[in-house]
Every structure is written in C-alpha cells, then in structure tokens.
Description:
CATH topology of the largest domain in chain A: Methylamine Dehydrogenase, Chain H
Helix content of chain B: 25-40%
CATH superfamily of the largest domain in chain A: YVTN repeat-like/Quinoprotein amine dehydrogenase
Strand content of chain A: 35-45%
Order of helices and strands of chain B: EHHEEEEEEHH
Distance between the termini of chain B: 39 Å
CATH class of the largest domain in chain A: Mainly Beta
Structural class of chain B: alpha+beta
Helix content of chain A: under 10%
Structural class of chain A: mainly beta
Largest sheet of chain B: 3 strands, antiparallel
CATH architecture of the largest domain in chain A: 7 Propeller
Radius of gyration of chain A: 28 Å
Oligomer: heterodimer
Largest sheet of chain A: 6 strands, antiparallel
Strand order of the largest sheet of chain B: 2-6-3
Amino acid sequence: MVTVNRILTDGAKIRRGNLLRDVTIRDFSGGWNVIDNDLNLSSKFAKLLQNLQRNPDGSLSVRPGTRLFADCSTYLDRILGMWYFSAHIIAAGQNGRLVAVDATGIVKDIWSDAWAATLPGTPDGWDSDLEVVTATIFNGELIVCNGVNKPLTINSNLAVTYLQDLATNSNTNTPIGKYVRTHGRYVVIAGIPGALSTIAISATDIAGTWFGDAAPNDALNLDLGSRVPKGSEEIRGLGRFRDRLVVAFDEVLLPGTLGEFNTAGDHVPVFDDAIDEHGSVGHRVIENIGEDMLFCDTVGVPALTRALFTGNVRPDRPSQLVDPEIQKSIGALTDAGALEHRTHAVYDGLDYNYMLFIPNHDLAANTTETRGFIYKRIEKLKVQAWSEWLGWNWSASARSALRRVFHARDALIFIQGNNDDVINADFVGEQETFSDGTTFKDQTGWTPVADEDDSGVPIEFVWELPWSDNNARFDVKDMRFISFDTKGHGRFTVELFVDNIYLDTEDPGETFQDETLFDDDTGFDVDVLDPTLSMEFVGGDTGGFGQEGFGDDGYGGGRPTNIEKLYQFTARYKIAKLRISGETQAGGDIEPLKFISVTMGYLQGSIRR
Amino acid sequence: MSYDTLTNLIDRVAERLSLVGGTSTQTYAEDRIAAAIQHKFDILFGETFWPQHVVWVEHTLDGTLGVVTADLTDLLSDFDDIGRIYPEDSTNPLPLFPHTTMNPNILSGTRPRFYAAIPEGESNDNKVFHIWPKTATGDIQYFFRKHPKTDTAGRLFLPEDTVTFDDHALILGSTFDILEDDGTNPNATQKFQSMFESRMKQLKRALSNAPIALDQGRQNILTTWEAV
C-alpha cells in the first residue's frame, strides 16, 4: 500500500519562506487623471473617479447627496441664477421673476410685473424668456442684471426696485448688461448689447450712478476692445482677484486696477497687462477662492494666482490632468450662448471644492445632465484632486453664509449635504425609488414621494484605478486575497481586470428593442466590460448577521469589510486593474461610504504567463 | 469517522483558512476548496477498499460476450474499483487475465476463468470488465468500491451531497493543499500536512481493528473443479 505522503505531495517538501506578498493602496491623493496613460500611472491617481471625492483624511468617499429645499414652481419656470443674500436664497427665473427663499424653504415672490407696477412710474417688470441672470452684492444691496432689461437692486428687506441714480431717481443711464461684478468701491457691468467689449464702471461708492448721470459723478464706460491682443473682443465675464478686476475674453484675460485718478480727478482705470491663452467661457464659471480665482475656458480650468515675490498676477492651469474631459464636454456644446450662459460654477467652502457644471446639450429643455468637474484644493494639506460628479442637472448654484451649497433644477432648489448634515441620496424629498430600491435607467425615481424620510435615489459611483504591475512588470502574479478598510454604509462591487483585457470584444453590442441585431450580427456600439473577477462587498459600518436591523435569522448584509478574515480573490496576471463601483444606500441616518485602503495578497511567479 | 456535506466541508475548510464564512461569501474560494475536497476524496477513495464504499453484487453472464447482463451504469464505472470476482458457489477469486503469457482464444467452456478490463471505446465498454472464456455462463459474485457519485459526470459531488469519507481527513488535507498553494505561513502549512497524515494513519489502522480471517476460502472442501 502506498504511503499517505504519495497521495498528495509525493514526498514534496514544504517551502521555508512565506511567499505571499501584499500591496496596499492607501494614497488616493492624485484624484482623477485622464491625461496620463493608465498603463503607466501611479495608483494614487484614478482613471475614473465618478461621484467620489478625496477627503482631507486621505480617504475617498461618495459625494454628498441633495435634499429638496424649496419648490419655486409657483412663481418661476426655470431658475437661471441663485445667490445668497440677506439670509435668503434669491432665485431668478427664466420668466423674469425673482423669489426669495428663507431658511425654512418658504418661497416669497419679490419681483414680477405685478410688483414692478407698484413702483413709482409703474414700470414693467422684466422680460420673460431670459438667457442669463447675474448678480453681485454691493454696499448691502444685491444688484441683478439680465442683459435685456435695466438692472434691479434688492435691499436687505428684500424690497426690489430698478437700479437708479439716487439724485434723479432715473435709470436712464444705468447700463443694461449681462454681467455684473463688484470690485473695490465700484459696480462693474459688462455684456452690454451693442458694446460687447465695453465695461461700465459705476461712480465711486454708488451703485446707481453711471456714466451720463448728473454730477458729482466719476462713473465711466471703458472700451477694452483695443487691449485684447487675440481672439474675440467680446467680454465673456468679469472676475475679481485681490486688488484687480479681471475682464475675461475668449482667449485673453485683462487684469485691471480701478480707483486710479488723474490730476483732473477723473477715474482712470489701469489695464496695462494681458494674459494670453487664458480666457473664460462665461461669467458664471468665475469663482474666487482665497488666493486664487478659478474659472473655465475652452481648454480647461485656469487659475489666477499672485506671484510670490513680485505680487503680479500669474496664470496657472490646475486642470491639466482632466483637460481632455473638460474639452470633450465643452466641445459638445455647439451654441455659444449655452456655453456662455449655462455653464456655471460654485465653490463649496466646507469641502474645499470648486464645482464646475457643464450641460450636456445646447438646449435647456434637452439637457439631461450637467457634468460636474470637481476640483478639491486644500493648500495647507497639499490636497489637489479632481473628480467627476454625475447624475445632476443643475441650472444654477449658490452658497450660503454658513457655506451650505444649494443647487437649482427647473424651479426646484436642493440643498447639498455635508459632514454635519449627511445626505446619502440624491433628490431626497423629491424622488424615490421603486420598492426594490432600484430607479429608472437614467437614475431618476418616482415623484412625488410617499415618505420623505425614505425618499431619494441612490448615488452611483465608480472608482477605477490604473493598471498596476506590482512593481514587477515582467513577472506573472497570482492574486490570492483582497481586503479593504472602509467606513460607512453601502454596497460596492469590486472588479478586477487583467492583462489589458478591459472590454468584452465578443459582445456584439446592444440589440434593437425586439432583441435583434443588424444584418452583420452586430449591435449598437456599447462598451461591455470584461472583468476577470467581480465581487460585492459592504461598507465597514454596514449591519449584518446578528446586528440591529438584521437579527440572527440567517440573513446577513453582504460581505463586510470590517473584519480581518480573508476574502479569496484569485486571478493570474501580469498587469491588473481594480474598478470599484456601487451606489449609496438611501434613507436613514447612516454614514456615507468611505474607502481608506485596499490591500491585495499575491504570489509573484515567473515570466511565463 | 463522520461524514459531512460538501457545503459544510467547504465552510469548515474556509474556517481553517481564516476565510470569511457564510453561504456564497467566498465566490472565488468555494470552487477552489470544493476542488481540493473532491481531489482528496477521489485519491483516498482509490487508496484502498474503505468499508463504507464496498458493495457486493451478483450478476449473470451473457454466455457469448463474456459480460454481465446487468446494467452497471450507476454501479461501477472504473475497472480499478473492482475488488474480487468469484464464480458462483466459489471462494476462489478469478485472477486477472495474464495478457502477456496466455492466448485467451484457446480458452473454452462455461466456467469463468479470468477477468479483464474492457478498454474505453470498445463495444460493451459500459460493462467495465469481461470474463474469459467469453462463453462462460452462470452467475458471478463480486465486490467493488462504489463511488457515491458514479452516476454523475466526472463523479463530482454537489453542494448538498454527503461526502462519504472522514471529514477530518478531507478538511485537513484540503486545508494543507490550499495553504501550500497560497504560499502563506509555511509552519501552518506543515502543521496541516502532519495532522492530515496522522489522521490517515489512524484511519488505516482502524481497518485492522477487527479480527481478520486468514485465507478463509481454503477452509472449505472443494466441491467443483477449478483452475488453480
């Protein structure tokens, strides 16, 4: 009879060393990067980073959700602009009306034809079918422009009137313009019909007195067209950077200094500098962030910073890692008006996010999504990371005094969650899922909702790392285990791609509705991924067997990632790529899903695959 | 010796491997563990005639082809699993036909003399073995080890099947197998190897626990002519 040894090992000796190696990915500081080839990219970058953000603590978490804050549909058709002023959100509609929304979400009509008729002289209200509305706060008043009608001013009591010269009570000389910006002691208006390269600068310290009004008056109009060295001379927007007014054109920025006077006492703004190859697609994308001014041009997101020693304005382009994607979204807009008026940005001061939203269609009615390019920068922590936020369709955004961020879609205003007010789903209070937790294919849900507490649609997220060779490009690796450090709730699927096999090339594509293909047995071109491994996990704080909500009836909550036992995840590869995707768990008081690290155990083998 | 289902054995091996437990939790480990358990069972099944697998049957020869008339499909599929074949009323087992020293075509008569395998692909290969001379008639009585999954392609256990071999041996052997493959802690690997081998020795010693009759067949007076 043969010996037991021969049964299995034929006398084989046990190796002496531990051959299993491990690699942990815990540096996600790079954020989204599409400029570098992902075959040669550090794992601190992500090839896809959708609806996730890099946190100051080094982790990645799902972006905050949104909750319905106010419904302005009684007064407004579609919100074109939103600003925080005097403890209210002031929203301007495409129909030329204004509303004020208080902290509890109560909407108050503050400007309409009827309101205008109550003013002295019974003027008309604003026109309807507007394209853009901008505003600025000057001396305790909100000044609102639309490029078609005379500007309005709103005082701290939310009383609205036309912006006018206080001496004459006339707005005859008040310029009509699309863009308004406060700088220093002046209100500046641009985008003036018939004078698209001209800026109108108000009288010093007075918002209603403009060029042509009675003395004392140092207001002026200044045509900057001759100072534009290249591209269109039409002004796209006005920005403010420290002590400079920045006038943005398509391809040029003109930083200028206001408040300079000649010996005759005339206001003589100084525009003696021009920054080439940096422009702005519009006024609404310009945001000031402390030491920087961020905006968007047809290349990506440039920034103006101050040179360290000279103090001069210096251009920078922090979006280089994602420029191709920004260009793709901007390139999809063929209508200059859509690009100029409907692309907008907001700065979330609590999460340090510059959020740029670009619509996916020229027409508002056909727009299904405003793609969000999110740039997180925390200078002191050396955090600079991009991510892509999807599933939203915002026409305007605003930020409150407490740095809460609000977004508008149609006539609805949503408040964005944050660390103190965690919102794990989108459109809470407005939409809800089917009873099985699923949504329509476009990730929208039913409306109105039956139960506000359990409403909202889950946020889908994708995190795709670059290809990795475990620092041994030529050798075969046998992956054995995978583990995660995660916090929060929610399920996610981990997929592993190996050896450059990413798409399923045998998939014929999508069929017609009757499930037939074209005559050549191919379908519509749809990318189908071809992962070698796929496994679903749940966040570290998710309940499971024996925990509250599940009990001990034998049903758990998925594969928990908060235990130190092993998950086998076996594949052979020379290079591998991880893709983590999922959706948030809507409803309830739960923590958002957060990724802290990913660890893989593998054996390194020979060069022969 | 106790048995367990394949599902439970997988879970128990996963536990020894410090894998997260639970039904369908280990998507990529369960098949691997199942394959290891199946391998251990199949190898150990063929190691000896374990009492729990031995089956005695009596079948009638067809008298022309040298095969039994019974359908062996769900009984016997591997020639190696045959233990002993006896002509009816005999305690002398038939020897394997000596292909290298005898021409079977000179054999005649109705008394079974030898048995041999039917090669795969030959006619009646589902009968597994045949008797020389092919004209032998009457019944034969034989025992073989019956694989519990003889009726299944590849003789593979299903998750709910009870694997009829000592559960400790299967678990220890499978754990050792996978640990070695995973390249983890060599001391742990060696520990499981030793534990497995110890258990196997124990099981084999147990085969000798009962009194063994020595050449029991020769105690009877011969009543028929037999080739010796």
